Amino acid sequence: MRKVHFIQADVFSDSPFGGNPVVVVPDARGMTADEMQALVRGMSFAETAFVVPPSRPDAAFALRCFTPTTEVAYSGHQLLGATFVMAGRGPLPLADGRSQVMVQIADDVVPVTIGHGPDGRILRVAALDQPAQFVRVVDDFSTTAAALSTDPLEILHTGLPIQVVQTGLSCLIVPMRSLRTVRAVMPMRQALDAVLQDVGAVCALVFTTETLAARNDVHVRVFAPPLGVDEDPATGSANGALAAYLWRHGVKTAPRARLRCEQGSEIGRPSVVEIEVDAAAQPMSILVGGRVARSVEGSVFF
């Protein structure tokens, strides 16, 4: 019988049980892929990151990322959650202000930025999103609106397009006129799945510039039926795509700025995804991050 220690980290939240949860196994040395998958499936963890020794000399540690059904090549919030957990354990070099940690995922090494105070407390974890690609504009407002159970005029009157933007994943971005409208959205799963398949996207992000909290910039909801996710509490890559969209269409114009995206309140897991944008960079630099909270710690025997 093997005893495996785990920590649940809630990414994009400053309090436990908000944000997007990831279970981190900080020492998975000696575990096989089958054992990792069995642990995730047996515990019904949504997503689990296993920390293993790196094969690259420039990496502090390596990650293997799993869902309950399969190992995935990359997961942004698993990367952020695992880095938060490992930095909190003390083996990573930290200095006042910001530090950068190199994390190996598959054969690639990804830089992760850690922001922390003079007492060593971790304030924020962030990683660069992939460069945004503006794939296509969708002219059919009515079909998209019907799949979201909303009035097409609520989209049309924003003056902004429905557009597919690809960063870490292909996202259909749908603007809406008001917070009330976004909160009332009720996706028709089969219809939305058909819309997404037709435009080549895996999720739909609906947003408005009206927010619940005055300090935030946009209110966001994300639905991903092709991935088996009815509604996601916090989606780093999709919010990175939204940031690129907002600058592309002149909603935001400052060359360098931070965007705060609130998400997840409708499903009881309030989240804030923080985006740092350098619109003058070529390609545009999009740093996606936020706060992380520990919520559960324990051991699994199998």
Name the features.
2 domains, alpha+beta, 18-stranded mixed β-sheet, Diaminopimelate Epimerase, Chain A, domain 1, 7 helices
Walkthrough of the structure:
The model has no long low-confidence stretch (mean pLDDT 92). The protein starts with a strand and ends with a strand. It folds into 2 domains: 3-119 and 291-301, Diaminopimelate Epimerase, Chain A, domain 1 (Roll); 133-283, Diaminopimelate Epimerase, Chain A, domain 1, CATH 3.10.310. A hairpin with a 2-residue loop joins strand 6 (97-105) and strand 7. The chain has an 18-stranded mixed sheet that branches. The protein is globular. Helix 3 (141-147) packs antiparallel against helix 6. It has 7 helices and 18 strands. The chain is of the alpha+beta class.
Average pLDDT figure: 92
Strand content: 35-45%
CATH topology of the largest domain: Diaminopimelate Epimerase, Chain A, domain 1
Question: How large is the count of helical segments?
Answer: 7
The CATH architecture of the largest domain comes to Roll
Q: What's the number of structural domains?
A: 2
Radius of gyration from the alpha-carbon trace, in angstroms: 19 Å
Shape: globular
**CATH level-1 class of the largest domain:** Alpha Beta
Largest sheet: 18 strands, mixed
Provide the CATH superfamily of the largest domain: Diaminopimelate Epimerase, Chain A, domain 1
The total strand number stands at 18
Q: Structural class of the secondary structure composition?
A: alpha+beta
* N-C termini distance: 6 Å
Q: How much helicity do the residues have?
A: 10-25%
Identify low-pLDDT runs: none
Order of helices and strands: EEHEEEHEEEEHHEEHHEEEHEEEE
